Amino acid sequence: MELGRDHDRGQDQAQDAFEADAQRRIAERLPLAGIAFALVIGLAWIFEHHYFPERDRVYAIFYSLELLVIGATGWLVRTPPFRARARTLASLCTVTLVFLVIGYHVVVRSTGDVLALALLYILVGAMVAIPWGWQAQVPVAVAAIAGFLLTIGLGAQPLVPVAMHVLGLSAMGALTILGAWFLERQRWTLFQQARELQRSNQALLRANRELERANRIKNEFLASVSHELRTPLNIIMGYVDLLAEGAFGTIPKEAAEIIERLSRTSRNLVFLVGDLLDLSRIEAGRLTVELTKVDLGPVLKEAQEYVVPRLQGKPVEFTCEVPSNLAVVADRNRVQQILVNLLSNATKFTHRGSIRLFAAATGDGWVDVHVEDTGVGIPQEELAKLFEPFGQSQAGREAGGVGIGLALSKRLAMAMGGEILVQSELHKGSRFTLRLRRAN
Q1: 310 shares a domain with 243
Q2: Is residue 216 part of a domain?
Q3: Which residues fall within 8 angstroms of residue 78, CB to CB, at 6 or more apart?
Q4: Residues 199 and 245 occupy one common structural domain
Q5: Minimal CA–CA distance to 376: which of 401, 410, 347?
Q6: Which pTM was predicted?
Q7: Is the dihedral angle over the CA atoms 406, 407, 410, 412 positive or is it negative?
Q8: Is there a single domain that holds both residue 168 and residue 238?
Q9: What is the largest CA-CA distance in the chain?
Q10: Residue 282 backbone phi and psi in degrees, to 5
Q11: Considering 78, 109, 300, 431, which has the largest number of Cβ atoms within 10 A of its Cβ?
């Protein structure tokens, strides 16, 4: 019951809004329609003067009255109290003009044929010029037919049979009423569509604001968590390094292996926290890069030092082809960060075979740094979401990854004016390419 009442209330509100919009449109269109009518009657006076100059005085009187009616109605619909009744005023104005036209033809004792034609023009012109609906068209049609019959009753003798004129006026009156109804329904449909579109746009704006708010909260949370984790992790890494160096005495071989594993895991966590912090900065638009000339040789060697320990015990061959005299325009630390992320993925998903790190100039001003592996590969339908924050392939979800490394790497590459490309085939391996502008 409540839903039904809400629906009825919504329909009533829509009808009220449509009616107010219709009244506004009529008020705006009425002065233009009045000017058009005055111009047509003025042109008709020229022809009337040519054939019946003796009627000029009468024509001038009725023409003045018509202008007075048009002007008064145009003034009234511009005032706030009468603007809401523009439909009624427009209908009354048109009916008055119909009777003034009829009155002129009665006074000059015309045959009635020209009158019938003039009434037809008024019926059609009013329907087309003023968007007032069938309710306002009915009085005009009735006035035209009744006025014509009155003229015949007062002695007009048309050349065409009266029945034909009456039939023509009646048919045109019915058609114009039907046309006015049809146009109003069309306007109602368009009005409803416009309201629905407006509601949808407002809902989208609200949803966007909520998404922006949620995204801002997420970024603030990531930044806060990253800052809170970074300090204790650095402390843990410091003590682990001291243990590994024997600062607290000699440690057994078994313990040394555990400490090495702990050190490696701690560094991975530091990288992850750094990625989270950088991602939140990028999303907030606060990340900066320092573009300089970067020699790729030392950068690739440092990346090699990161990946080799992670491959211990795996039947995976790693090769690094260090280029000579190959430099790019980039932020050195960000390039290192991207390569670590790409190599981390390669070591995670390559269980046997090989991983290859190499770089080459493309010949068109770019340098491509490739990380190529023979790992599990990625299905084509999952490639697009790899670079979305927290977006992962099926293999990534099974491996327990977070899903921020590639998203961050792509954004870092774009911030340096480059890009990251990917080629992959399921069960055969992948190639990720960091493309950067070559330094002169």
Answers
A1: no
A2: no
A3: 27, 31
A4: no
A5: 347
A6: 0.52
A7: negative
A8: no
A9: 133
A10: -65, -45
A11: 300
pLDDT > 70? residue 436: yes
Q: Which pairing describes strands 316-321 and 353-361: parallel, antiparallel, or unpaired?
A: parallel
Question: Is residue 321 domain-shared with residue 347, that is, in the same domain?
Answer: yes
Domains in the chain: how many in total?
Answer: 3
Dist CA 302 CA 316 (whole Å): 19
One domain for residues 273 and 338: no
Would you state the structure tokens that stand for residue 234, as one six-digit string? Answer: 């650095």
Residue 338 domain-assigned? yes
Bridge partner list, 430: 373, 424
∠ CA 355-357-361, rounded to 5°? 145
Q: 272 with 378, same domain?
A: no
d(CA 370, CA 310): 19
Q: Domain of 277? A: 222-283
405-434 confidence digits (pLDDT tens): 888 889 899 999 999 999 998 888 999 999
Same domain, 132 and 227: no
Burial pattern 14-36, b for ≥16 Cβ within 10 A else e, equals eeeebeebbbebbbebbbebbee
The tokens describing 217, both together, are 């909260």
CB 320 within 8 A of CB 298: no
The set of residues, in sequence order, having a beta carbon less than 8 Å from that of 233 and lying 6+ positions away, is: 266, 269, 270, 273
